Amino acid sequence: MVYFGKKNRMNKSVVARQADWSNKVPAVTLSFWIIKIMSTTVGEMGADFLAVNAGWGQALTDAVMAALLLGALSAQLHTRRYTPWLYWLSVVLVSIVGTQITDLLTDGIGVSLYISTAVFALMLVAIFFVWYQVEHTLSIRDIVTRRRELFYWAAVLCAFALGTAAGDLTTEALGFGLGAVAFGMLIAIACAIWRVGGNVVLTFWLAYILTRPFGAALGDLLTQARTYGGLGIGAMWTSALFLTVIVILVAVAQLRAGAQPRPAVK
Length: 266
Prior knowledge:
Elements (H helix, E strand, L loop, with lengths): L1 H18 L10 H24 L3 H21 L6 H25 L4 H23 L10 H50 L4 H24 L11 H25 L7
């Protein structure tokens, strides 16, 4: 009875420590997917601008983005509730670093996109396997502990790297326009499967992975010159438009989050 009492108090202690947490991941709405896709495009363009136009070079840009990501994730992990501006800043930086990892393997080391796509896919499966074995759930609606959040961000980073590799592999064969259409159709199929009762976790992560190459292909289609198969709008105008939409949507989410009562500490 004494042992049972200690165990019971320990379980209550765990619940109490989690009681002042709320889910650290936003609700999956249309706004979520719009910000996700556009942040992918803006993040990639921003990194390219610093490396090429600003003259930082690839090595310095990689180091700066990695440091910014570590700082943003550290702040994100130390919050107790979903903070829209911090969450989406972390997503943008994860998008950039995930792209840089794939580019380093492909351009710097010469690893085939076929190999990197397969390796990142296996890594993502391994993350999900360990995550489920430890937490017994992969639900993004219940990211209420630091350990679950670490699993979540590891999966997000790997998903971005996988999306970059698979996207580059596909767009090299199909081009920007057909690539954007192909990935858009795959996202629509994942959404349709979810609508008819498909597995929520599987369809979410499939769509999450696919939005990375879709956003990149869409960005290239809008920015690249017509001679290269693009629409010639330019990186500056495309980035300005996408960034404006992101800021507005995140600001609305931040205002709504600020209006919600904080969870009580028990």
